[in-house]
Every structure is written in C-alpha cells, then in structure tokens.
Write a structure and sequence with these properties.
The chain is built from eight helices and no strands. The N and C termini lie far apart (about 60 Å). Helix 5 runs antiparallel to helix 6. The protein has about 180 residues and is an all-alpha fold.
Length: about 180
C-alpha cells in the first residue's frame, strides 16, 4: 500500500507541477488534466472501504464518515478536473484519457492496496499487466498519433466506414461484382 501512496503522490504532484508550466489549451495540457482527473476518479478503494464499513453496520465509527467524506471529495475533484478539461478540449480527446487513467489507477490500487492478485497464478498476473500496458499504448496513440507512419486518423475512420458500409454505400462481399 505504501508503494501505491508514493505513486499517487508522484502522479498528482507531477501533473500539478507540469500543469503550471504547460498551456492548458495545448494537447499536452489536456493530457495532464485528463490524467489528474482520472487518477482521482480511480481511487475506488476509498469507496470499497466505505462499503465494507456499511456492510459491518459500523454507523458509529469515525472511519465510516472519514472515508465517506474522502470518497465524495475525490470524486468531486475528479468531476471538477474533467469539466475544466472539457471546456478546453474535445470530449473525444479528454474522455478516453480520463477513463483509461481511471481504469489503470483502479488496476494498480487493486493490485497493490487491495491485493486482488492473491491466489492468482503467474500467467494471470502476466495477462493483468499486459492489459494495463495495452491501455497505456492506447493512451499513447490518442495523444501522440504517429501521422508520419499511419497517416491522419480521419483517413482510417473513412476507410473503416467504407469497409463496413457505413458511408452510405452497400459493402460488397469479397469476390462479388
């Protein structure tokens, strides 16, 4: 858990520091805003702790209310960060970054803090880590799409629309003419 808290402080501190230097309207600024929002939104373990206190019927416990306030504060801050980012950037840019980082944070804190991996065999841990890396690759492509290698993303969307018959034309099966 200590490792996760150090990682949490590094991500939040790093994003905050870099946001002060970056133009919030730039692609890089949008990435930082999305990461910050997703990182706070992915702190689901506070909510899991809160639910556990409710299940144990611990309504008189200080910790129930402490984690309740903490959960609401984190989620409210995440929504605030997303709303600021959406004022400056397209939703198709910010929302995938937010959701991807939220899922990554949930996976990391589930693995490090909640010990979701206990009892898993080696290949399941490898798949778990691989899925996190795939999400990171997707986030990388959203932010830094290599147009010099893959062309404009719009070209690929038009090609896929044409292939699936979504461009208004009926797609012909291969070999049919």
């Amino acid at each position: 858990a200590f490792l996760y808290y150090v990682l949490f402080c590094l991500v939040v501190g790093g994003c905050s520091l870099l946001l002060r230097r970056a133009d919030p309207r730039s692609k890089y600024g949008g990435l930082l805003q999305g990461v910050l929002a997703g990182w706070f939104g992915g702190c689901a373990f506070f909510l899991k702790v809160l639910i556990q206190f409710v299940r144990e019927d611990a309504w008189g416990s200080f910790w129930l209310y402490f984690f309740g306030v903490l959960s609401v504060a984190y989620m409210a801050f995440a929504v605030y960060c997303v709303s600021l980012a959406l004022r400056r950037h397209e939703a198709v840019y910010i929302v995938p970054i937010y959701e991807g980082v939220l899922i990554i944070n949930g996976a990391v804190n589930g693995y490090l803090v909640l010990r979701d991996y206990e009892g898993d065999v080696g290949w399941r841990v490898i798949f778990y880590c691989t899925s996190v890396l795939i999400i990171l690759l997707g986030l990388y492509l959203i932010v830094w799409w290599p147009t010099h290698l893959l062309g404009d993303g719009e070209e690929r969307v038009k090609w896929l629309d044409q292939l699936m018959g979504l461009d208004g034309h009926v797609a012909m099966p291969i070999g049919a003419a």
